[in-house]
Design brief:
Radius of gyration: 19 Å
Helix content: 40-55%
Number of strands: 12
Largest sheet: 10 strands, mixed
Number of helices: 11
CATH topology of the largest domain: Isopropylmalate Dehydrogenase
Distance between the termini: 25 Å
Strand order of the largest sheet: 2-1-3-12-11-4-5-10-8-9
Structural class: alpha/beta
CATH class of the largest domain: Alpha Beta
Strand content: 15-25%
Length: 326
């Protein structure tokens, strides 16, 4: 097994190092290659996704990503986030899985990742108007819907498909195609929910959701909201999967340059992303479960400042390793 690790920027390098330390103990035979990506790659090569980085990712069994983003690139023509969008498109990882768990809440956001507003035509007209285009083909909706229903079958058998069908043509098509796909899964319950209603219900009663199926932009927002109501982005992991080739596994949080180098970054989201990689990318469910349980215990024993404690990144790693070895 070989993975590519992309530390990225800010605290990305710190949480990536934490993941490498844990994986070296949990799966010692795992081969890890590290490559430049994001802002660090722009500074070194001028590109957020250098050709050799992309080539390595295409040949790997999985990609583990730290975080991207640096303040000096926020308004630049070339930005770290462009590398992430390009990598997702190149690997065709159309299914973004964002689990969120806390007490009675156990939900999974299944977000379409390579279509919609972020990938549609965009530009500026002569009169100064700036536009971004929201586009979807029915085939894109069909494949993410199948993924959502299959995942729901392994959970509580409930899918909430989120759209804005009262306003958007793309959402009306989304709703129609999802309903057609649902006919193939009579054991799964489907409901359609408008995105504004879904946002409200995520805050007031998140326990009502099992699988939330939605498009790219809505999923981007709702999955962050789900992470916030279940403990914060420092705990939120993600997996981005295609039908073939390597997936991308990354924490939801940003590069947090304000705390980079302080040793206080919470590595839990990165370690949970590594667990998703073991489960979905490397077919190692036993090790994935061991890591998940160890992380759950560690954040209780050694909470970092974002969780109200004073543990360091290394303290959390030590607690996780102790849990794995028990």
């Amino acid at each position: 097994m070989k993975i590519v690790c992309l530390p990225g920027d800010g605290i990305g390098a710190e949480v990536a190092a934490a993941a490498r330390d844990v994986l070296s103990v949990l799966v010692p035979e795992l081969e890890v290659e590290e490559h430049l990506f994001g802002g660090a790659a722009i500074l070194a090569t001028g590109s957020p996704l250098p050709d050799d980085t992309l080539a390595a990712c295409l040949e790997a069994d999985a990609v583990l990503l730290g975080a991207v983003g640096l303040p000096q690139f926020d308004a630049a023509e070339v930005r770290p986030e462009q590398g992430l969008i390009g990598l997702r498109k190149a690997l065709d990882v159309y299914a973004n899985l964002r689990p969120a768990r806390r007490a009675a809440v156990d939900l999974l956001v299944v977000r379409e990742l390579v279509g919609g507003l972020y990938y549609g035509p965009k530009g500026t007209r002569e009169d100064g108007t700036v536009f971004d285009t929201l586009e979807y083909h029915p085939s894109q909706v069909e494949r993410i819907a199948h993924r959502g229903f299959v995942l729901a079958r392994g959970r509580r058998g409930q899918v909430a498909s989120v759209d804005k069908a009262n306003v958007l043509e793309t959402s009306r098509m989304w709703r129609r195609v999802v309903s057609e796909v649902a006919a193939h899964y009579p054991d799964v319950t489907l409901e359609h929910v408008l995105v504004d209603t879904a946002a409200m219900q995520l805050v007031t009663s998140p326990e009502r959701f099992d699988v939330i199926l939605t498009e790219n932009t809505f999923g981007d927002i709702l999955s962050d909201e789900a992470g916030a109501v279940t403990g914060g982005l420092g705990l939120a992991a993600s997996a981005s999967l295609g039908d073939e080739g390597p997936g991308i596994f990354e924490p939801v949080h940003g590069s947090a340059p304000d705390i980079a180098g302080s040793g206080t970054a919470n590595p839990a989201a990165m370690l949970r992303s590594a667990a998703l990689m073991l489960e979905h990318g490397l077919d190692r469910p036993t090790e994935a479960n061991r890591l998940t349980q160890a992380v759950d215990e560690a954040i209780e024993l050694a909470p970092t400042p974002d969780l109200g404690g004073n543990a360091t990144t290394r303290d959390v790693v030590a607690a996780v390793l102790a849990g794995i070895e028990r």
